[in-house]
Amino acid sequence: MELEGIIRFFENKTILIIGATGSLAKESFIFERVTPNIAGDISDENFGIKDSILREEMWNEIDIVLNSAATTNFDEGYDIALGINTYGALHVLNFAKKCIKLKVLVHVSTVMQIPADMVVNSMIMAMVAHANKSSQIIFHVCSSMRNPMKLSGLSDFISLYFTQNPWIDRSGKSINVCKLIVFCNIARFQAYMAIRYKLPLKVLWLANLVLFQYYGDMYITLNRKVEVLMRMVDL
């Protein structure tokens, strides 16, 4: 697609960017170009905007709706995650339906470990390519097939990064990071977790029972960490 055509498409367009203060806004080239900022809550109908004049103005002027709002906390409370990631998307859709000049609605499902400029470029192309079309198109943006990121390479990069840039715990000490273990399937991961963590936790639970809850706090803390990890895997 020619650059001139892309520029021409965005001329004099009003774009509503939802979630502009989130992860993508950490990139200065995005944050500096988003104006004005309108306070709202995606978990509410009409984003909680009480000003009826402002709502009408938005419905009359908006050409493009881009939704990148979400909670990316994998241990988020169920009510919060449901309100933002599920009902929030529905509220965006309902709001967009009221925009009389709407050309396209773009919903960003997941942005993880992908350069922000690559994400933004993909959004721009999606807007231009599918404006004024009623079809639902899903794009999957990832590393290229020409030079793909291999799982083993990702493991090495992560280990190297946290070795050179270690996390610091609350006492000010560096946290040692071991080389990541890569599992080829979920069954091997579950077997590893059962032997490496769940079995020792079971022993700790029995010891805690025999010793009148002496290890109660330790068991609760360790068990919670394992449960959080298993929930993340299920996601």
Explain this structure to me?
- The protein is 49% helix and 5% strand.
- A three-stranded parallel sheet has the order 1-2-3, sandwiched between helices.
- It folds into three domains: 3-129, no CATH class; 152-180, no CATH class; 183-235.
- The model has no long low-confidence stretch (mean pLDDT 84).
- Helix 7 runs antiparallel to helix 8.
- The protein is mainly alpha-helical.
- The chain has helices at residues 3-10, 28-31, 52-61, 78-97, 116-129, 151-164, 186-210, 216-234; strands at residues 15-18, 64-67, 104-107.
- The radius of gyration is 23 Å and the shape is elongated.
Described by its quaternary structure, the protein is single chain
**Any idea how many domains?**
3
Approximately how much beta-strand content do the residues carry?
Answer: 5-15%
Mean pLDDT across all amino acids: 84
Helix content: 40-55%
Regions with little confidence, pLDDT below 50 for 5+ residues = none
Count all strands and give the number.
3
Number of helices: 8
| Major β-sheet strand ordering | 1-2-3
Give, in order, the helices and strands. Answer: HEHHEHEHHHH
* Anisotropy-based shape: elongated
Assign the structural class, choosing from mainly alpha, mainly beta, alpha/beta, alpha+beta, or little secondary structure.
mainly alpha
